[in-house]
Fold this sequence. Notes:
Layout: H1 3-21, H2 34-47, E1 61-62, E2 70-71, H3 78-90, H4 94-119, H5 122-134, H6 136-140, H7 148-168, H8 174-187, H9 195-203, H10 211-235, H11 242-251, H12 259-270, H13 272-285, H14 291-311, H15 324-335, H16 341-354, H17 356-361, H18 370-382, E3 388-391, H19 397-402, E4 405-408, H20 418-422, E5 429-431, H21 440-449, E6 452-454, E7 457-459
Parallel strand pairs: 3-4, 3-5
Antiparallel strand pairs: 1-2, 5-7, 6-7
Amino acid sequence: MGRGIRWLCLFLILLVALGARLRGITNPLLDDQGWRQADTASMASHMLGHLTDIPSVFLPQLNYDGVTPQKVELEFPFLPYLLACTWTLFGWADSWGRLWSVGLSLITVGGIYDLGRKMFTDRAGLMAAAIYALMPLSIYYGRVVMPEPMAQAWSIWALAMIWRWRNTRKERGSWKAGLLMAGAILAKLPQLMLLPVALLLGFSSLNYKRIDQLVRYTMIALIPPMVYYLWVHFNAAPSSQFVSGILIGNVVDTSNFDWTILVKNIRLGFTDGVLLLSGAGLCRLSFFRSPARLALLVWGGIAALYLGVVCARIPLDYYLVPILPLVALLGAYALDGIHRLQGTVIGIMLLLLFNRETYTHLTLKYEWNQEYLSQAGWIKEHTSASSILVLSDPPPMTFYYAHRVGFRLTKVGDEEFPNKMLQQFPADYFVHLPQSKHKELFWENVRNRYPEVGPGIFDLKSPKSK
């Protein structure tokens, strides 16, 4: 395949990937995973005016749970910082965050192409890029305002660069790949599972004299994340230590398994056809004679362990995102066994045809409730900027759109005496969120106790007389 044809094919793949990810680009951050998207944007909003206050600007802050923004233990805020810079230059709009994520997703597609063609063949690289670009999970999480697109971009290019460095046999330069791997781990902690893969890609079967480069690479990849995660851990209150809380509360808990949801998320996110292809690619890998073989097999083993330890306990489909590149590469290697390009193209078209129902399922992820914006808009316009809110349920998106801080009712309390619950909070307004979990008796008692001054908004400072 000529160089010009390769570049044309890659351009077309990127164009298709771009088109698929532009769907819903102007949607507010209220569709599927709106909670986490609004959190990311909230972190960016607290950076405005403080972009040069380093390092304090990199300590994430959220609008809950307190009367002031709370410092929280989360990943390094690469995307929030970029978003805050963009807002400073061009003004606030949710679409800026989505556009950054789309751009990062396209960078990931390019990285998968580069890694696939270096590991296997040019055709395999193109097929891997195409499969990654078309997987439903990749499409949706390639346009969300969340850390995933950034983490994917950093990690895939970290692997591509260490493999390129190994093959060029340069004495220097591994530190660049190490910085990219550090960036991936900082952007999303689960990317740590790719470090053993990177070590095998870069340093297996090399001269023992290069052991110092392996140590240097490992230190560069691990020390920045260790320093950062320790820093945010000790600067966040115990109730706001989300990263360590997930590790302790979900991963270590051996009683919480949900294989049914996991299987459903895998089938809908990857599609049955791609899973079948990746399995065929894994079988074909046993005949592959390359230093990349061991790295890919270990990557597969780590992915299986990750599915059982993390994904089965936390039934959220975005935890599957780190496995997307491996599935794409293995699927491409299976397709690369078809030596004619026409056969490969026909195979991809058949995959799209057989899995069209999976793409239809994506439509549900783009749906969002206008009531959140209506309530937040009323609060922003009719209440003081210093007002403190209490939300009826855990989803915190109202804080972001109303530009307010406050508390959330995370547990359903006494339906008969809601005022006892609400009096615990130093708040001004209580917000009845759409699709609240509270029963009608609870809301009847709230209406009897507090005046409704806006759409589902109750004034806690002016209770009705008993």
